[in-house]
Write a structure and sequence with these properties.
102 residues, alpha+beta, 26% helix, flat
Length: 102
């Protein structure tokens, strides 16, 4: 029980995003020093031959010193995709979501 409470205290914010057969979890957590980091988990439900299911999970840990580079890289890739694939709706980059166009 104590381990569960400790784990709950470390989690600051969580957002789940359902996307087709997958669910993505974005979890902001805190280190012992109180520094935030992000875990991104992809979860997919799989079935075996008997019809039993299990969840396949893949996790990325992203620490504060890498936030800016990760955001820049993701924005660059998303911009490329939206510019070269017109079927995909374009959204503003992460850093520009609150800015108004002039």
């Amino acid at each position: 029980m104590e381990e569960f409470e400790k784990k709950e205290k470390d989690e600051i914010f969580s957002k789940a995003v359902r996307a087709g057969k997958r669910t993505y979890f974005f979890d902001v957590k805190s280190t012992k020093k109180g520094e935030y980091y992000l875990t991104i988990t992809e979860s997919k439900k799989n079935f075996d031959r008997d019809g039993n299911y299990h969840y396949e999970k893949h996790k990325i840990f992203l620490y504060k010193e890498d936030f800016e580079k990760f955001e820049e890289g993701l924005n660059e890739v998303m911009k490329y995709i939206s510019e070269t694939n017109p079927d995909i709706p374009s959204n503003p980059p992460f850093g520009d979501t609150d800015k108004e166009e002039n």
